[in-house]
Amino acid sequence: MLRRVLTISIIAVSLTGSLFAAEHEVGQKEKKFTTESLKVKVGDVVSFPNYDSFFHNIYSLSSEKIFDLGSYPQGQTKKVKFDKAGKILVECAIHPGMKMTIEVQP
Ligand SMILES: [Cu+2]
Fold it and tell me: How remote is the CA of residue 89 from the centroid of ligand 1, in Å?
């Protein structure tokens, strides 16, 4: 009985977690990110649409979220889920001037 209650509450917690997870957008436009900084919550997803007519390659080497989206053309969007709190520096491998930070709050 106790085990069943525990299982149900674990399912409820994980369901609420995903229900409240928000999706944010950080576009790439004119060789810049559409925002220099963004605050999200743990579990949120950020999409990175490319609005430029050339390729971008979004990545991060910050220990809380290491990722590399590879290079992709105009019209394509890639998504990243942030599952750990911290400050993440996001850069573009093709354009060294492109930088922005995502603060993931617990
Ligand atoms: Cu770029």
Answer: 14
CATH topology of domain 23-104: Immunoglobulin-like (2.60.40)
What is the Å distance from ligand 1's center to 59 Cα? 10
Residue-level pLDDT at 20: 78
Q: For residue 105, how far is its CA from the centre of ligand 1 (angstroms)? A: 26
pLDDT over 50 at 10, yes or no: no
Domains in the chain: boundaries? 23-104
- 8 CA → ligand 1 middle, Å: 45
Contacts of the segment 53-60: beta carbons below 8 A, 24+ positions apart: 54/94, 55/94, 56/28, 56/92, 56/94, 56/95, 56/98, 57/92, 57/93, 57/94, 58/28, 58/90, 58/91, 58/92, 58/93, 59/90, 59/91, 59/92, 59/93, 60/88, 60/89, 60/90, 60/91
